[in-house]
Amino acid sequence: KTPQLASPRSICCFEGSCGHLRAAAAMAEMKLTYFKVRGRAELTRLVFAAGGVTYEDERVEMAEQKRRKEAGELPFGQFPTLTVGGRVFAQSYSIAKYAARVAGLMPSDPLDALQAEGIVDATDDVRTKLVPIRYMPLEDDAKLKKYAEFFDQTLPVWLEKFEQLCKPGKFLVGDTLSVADLAVFNMCDYLTAPSCAVAAASREVSAQAAQCLARFPGLDEHRRKVAEVPQVKEYLARRPRTPHDDVRTLVEADFTSPSSS
After folding, report:
1. What is the DSSP letter of 261?
2. SS3 of residue 102 by DSSP
3. Which residue in 91, 112, 90, 92 sits closest to 180, CA to CA?
4. How many of the other CB atoms lie within 10 Å of CB of 154?
5. Quick count: other Cβ atoms within 10 Å of Cβ 242?
6. Which of 40, 43, 49, 222 can bridge 235 by disulfide, Cβ–Cβ 3.0-4.6 Å?
7. Confidence band (pLDDT; 50, 70, 90) for 28?
8. Which phi and psi (to 5°) does residue 84 adopt?
9. What letter does residue 138 receive in the DSSP assignment?
10. What are the start-end ranges of the E strands in 73-230?
11. What is the edge-to-edge ordering of all strands in the sheet holding 87-90?
């Protein structure tokens, strides 16, 4: 007799597991630890905000990260970490995906979840081509040339792929907001803002960043749609603002609250 293949839902029932996960997380104290910038923690912050999840948003100085690393308190020696019930976990995108399950923002269907996670990981492909430029041991002019090349040559190829995922008035996966939408929103957010002090000081590179979505109306419309989700809108209105996102060169005076700007 030919065996019958089980449906994806019978193989892995996400609905029940996510419900238990949310209940367990509600009983455990959660703490997200990162620097005082958006960086690799911002997607998780957006997910928790969108899902109405209570957690401690611990933002520390670089010296404290160094101390914890030397003390062996960080699983892989780096931030961000998520502490849940006293256990410390690492890796930014693993944390964000866990947060999405806790927040009810990971699709319940396994194939939809696979699609959502693939979109999340694709945004990291973009990030890993942009952020390393700030750390290159180059003079400012050479570094600005690298940024210009990124915006002119590298980024449009990737944004075209994301543009194809966007449908007018729709979310990216299914009919409701998911971690995929928040990851793409977060990507657009850091692409359109200066990555470091060198980029922030350049009128040309800052303009390239600010205008990088102009040729991709679907992506820009999706960004605006996500920004209008009430919980996301409330979070964006109160999060700290900085002239760029490089923690190494920011000083306390660079951090402003929306009410003071």
Report:
1. -
2. helix
3. 112
4. 14
5. 17
6. 49
7. confident
8. -125, 115
9. -
10. 81-84, 87-90
11. 56-60, 30-35, 81-84, 87-90
Mean pLDDT of 8-28: 47
Average pLDDT of the chain, as a whole number: 90
Residue 116 pLDDT: 98
- What digits encode the pLDDT tens for the residues 160-213? 999 999 999 999 999 999 999 999 999 999 999 999 999 999 999 999 999 999
What whole-number distance in Å separates Cα of residue 94 and Cα of residue 179? 12
Residue 21: pLDDT band by 50, 70, 90 thresholds?
low
Residue 33 is which amino acid?
T
Q: What is the 3-state secondary structure (H, E, C) of 190-246?
A: HHCCCCCHHHHCCHHHHHHHHCCCCCCHHHHHHHHHHHCCHHHHHHHHHCCECCCCC
Q: Average the pLDDT over each of 4-8, 51-55, 159-163, 224-228 and give the range with the smallest value.
A: 4-8
Q: Which residues pair with 90 in a beta bridge?
A: 81
Q: How far is CA 106 from CA 47, 176, 235, in A?
A: 10, 10, 20
SS3 248: coil
Looking up tokens 């996966």 gives 173
C-alpha triplet 100, 225, 48: angle, nearest 5°: 25
Q: What percent of the chain has pLDDT over 70?
A: 88
Half-sphere exposure (Cβ direction) of 88: Cα atoms closer than 13 Å: 14
